[in-house]
Amino acid sequence: MLLDPSLPQFWSDLVQVLLIGTGQTLYMVGISLLITIIVGLPLGIVLVGTEPGGLFESPFGSRRLGRVVNRVLDFVVNLGRSVPFIILMVALIPFTRLVVGTFIGPTAAIVPLAVVAIPFFARMVEIAIKEVDTGLIEAAESLGATRWQIVSKVLVPEALSPMILGLSTTVTSIINFSAMVGTVAGGGLGDVAVRYGYQRYSTIHMVAVIIVIFVIVMVLQGLATMLAKRFAHRSRPTRAEKTAPALRASAVTGA
Amino acid sequence: MASGGPATYFVTVIWPAALRLTHSESLRYKAARTLRTTVISVQHVSKTFRSGGTVTAALQDVSLEVAEGEIFGVIGQSGAGKSTLIRAVNLLERPDSGTVTVDGDQLTALSPADLRRARRKIGMVFQHFNLLAGRTVRGNVELGLEIIGVDGDARRRRALEILDLVGLADKAGAYPAELSGGQKQRVGIARALAGSPKVLLSDEATSALDPETTRSILDLVKTINTDLGLTVLLITHEMDVVKRICDSAALIEGGRIVEQGRIVSLISTAGSRLAHELFPLGAVPSLPGDTVIDITFSGGSADRPVIAQLARTYGLDVSILGAAIETIGGNQAGRTRLALPGSAAGNAAPISDLRSQGMLVEIVGE
Ligand SMILES: Nc1ncnc2c1ncn2[C@@H]1O[C@H](COP(=O)(O)OP(=O)(O)O)[C@@H](O)[C@H]1O
Ligand SMILES: [Mg+2]
Q: Do residue B90 and residue A135 have CB atoms under 8 angstroms apart?
């Protein structure tokens, strides 16, 4: 059945379809992003830490274990990043079914999305943490810091800004892949584009989907850039910082 | 910024009170100075680096003793092993062999957890400051206190107190990127001091700073040393640093300590290279028919009219070839190079006269 834009219900229908699609996309992307951070952040930290000379070079006193963990994780991350998403998605169907109970719908889509995003983000975390000056680690060590304190008080806070930018790149690709998931498993804006734009030749639906996705990506990237700047503290001081240093200090440490 | 607030209270009431030593404390402090209790003891430490195909013996059987309350400077050229040595003192670099003892704890024998506890007694400042860019000045100073589990309010008070000591109370809310090099190093010093350490290690703390800032930082270190009785071990490649604040010094070359001692005694040690470096007189000119002598004087002999006396008593035509005079540890000390007419044998009488007055006389040319 072709859609007729001159009918009054076309537009109300479009809005409803877009709202549902956007909601599903945000749900898929949001949950998989959460999982990605929860798994990818420690993974990235372990990847850097288990390198020779790293903080976790010899976990439980075994240098060998450290090397093995590093090699294995590095391999898994490379594998996860090199398999094309469409193949990964299909290959993961049995696993998805095991976890979610089905491989259709937005919830099922979260599994392949998280699986593809975790190694991607872990690499970003790895790169960001490698950029942290080893002198800072030594300073913390000289103050008697434990390894955990070094991670939580030095490595993560000091790498926050590049990690946020990395997260922004990650979320963009999750959105990208979420549209692809839609065509296979159903749900989200990708599904809207295929069912209405492609199968029923509605250019208006297609354009609307593109606009909504574009807006989501722009908003997220703008947010990330803003946050990254806020945490960098490398740029010249803003007027607020100059005029109210004490106020700022209490705001920062009060958090 | 905090007029009338808790910071002011600390600055005007608590801090001065904390600085005031009780009579018995000051006696103990003086006794410690005269007994020279060893606070840092490095014994037979060696460290070899192997990277790729190259093997570097960075430290070779190095032994060092730093007495309580003194400022001990290790001087040497780039690559001599200075950083490796100071990093061995808090075990940032674990030596291959030998022992390191700080304030009674033999660090080289401690478990990782005990080592972390022992490190709280050892503050360290770095050439490149190593401040956390994402924390304010106060946040940086609080880092060590967070690590040892001091709670928020006490932490904040202590940080402000120490920032006041280093002259940065008004920068508590600034970020390191907004500070000058000298200010950054003050933050580094404040961070090291926040946990009330027994000793302070300084790895070329002033090498990234201009001469004027260097002087102000050195003066701060000296103030901390005298006011808090903190023992300081510093490394440097600049003789000026040693001249300005050190009580003792060691010269390191190719991973070995070639000379060490209190500066007052080094000055009166014949052939001391550190003394020569402290008072550089340049190359000895060749003057046929003359005897060239270097006179090193310190303490009481410094203000005696030596040359006039020589001329008067022995009728000598003394020429001054060079002189280097410094104030070291509050005393005038220096070296003068003189040319006396005639051979060394001919000048035996005036030379032994000078020696009997407590001056070190070296015959450097004939
Ligand atoms: N981590 C390291 N790996 C390999 N060689 C090192 C390392 N650290 C220092 N060295 C070498 O040890 C020697 C002494 O270095 P260092 O203690 O940094 O000297 P300094 O501080 O006096 O300039 C140098 O030859 C240096 O190249
Ligand atoms: Mg060095």
A: no
